[in-house]
Design a protein that fits this description.
This protein has 174 residues and is mainly alpha-helical. It has one domain. It is 62% helix and 0% strand. The chain has eight helices and no strands. α4 packs across α5.
Length: 174
């Protein structure tokens, strides 16, 4: 948006992606989403350590969802891995987003988590749009806009010789 001749009292400002307002907003979304996941993971680590037993129990109860027998199989056969990976994964995803490090990679894993949560909570009592879908959309935003480049350490990492010599690494950053 820019200055509107019809409203001479409005102040001119820009919502362009290259403008400071957009950068601040994307950084804010990244930090808030990072805190959300970091807090969820650290809380589980403090309470249960790497033995988060609710994860496998949750998957075992998903037999009537859109994912079918896959989560039940995972809950029965991969419980030992899920117990450790849920709190550890949430914590690491949160830290990556909080500090703006490997944001795209962290967001891919965050989107994976949120997809499982969204489909796994498939009661959809209020329709398809729920908090899990909103989390998935936040992670999609982090991926698309490479939010680690806005006031995050990814902006610094991208300028290193190591990354400049390996341009494909830029896809993990952001």
């Amino acid at each position: 948006m820019s200055y509107q001749a019809a409203n001479p009292l409005s102040e001119e400002f820009s919502l362009e992606l290259s403008g400071p307002l957009a950068g601040y907003w994307l950084a804010f979304l990244r930090v808030v989403t990072g805190w959300w996941f970091f807090h969820a993971g650290v809380t589980k680590l403090i309470e249960d350590g790497l033995s988060y037993s609710y994860g496998p129990m949750y998957l075992q109860g998903m037999e009537g969802t859109a994912l079918g027998p896959l989560p039940v199989w995972m809950g029965n056969n991969l419980g030992w891995l899920i117990e450790a990976m849920v709190p550890l994964g949430e914590t690491l995803i949160g830290l990556g987003l909080l500090f703006g490090v490997l944001v795209r990679l962290a967001s891919v894993f965050g989107a994976f988590f949120m997809t499982l949560f969204w489909v796994g909570n498939a009661s959809f009592g209020h329709g398809l749009v729920n908090g899990d879908l909103m989390g998935l959309l936040l992670f999609g935003t982090m991926i698309v806009f490479a939010t680690g480049r806005y006031y995050g350490l990814d902006a610094i990492i991208e300028r290193t010789k190591f990354v400049k010599n390996r341009p494909r690494l830029r896809y993990l950053l952001g």
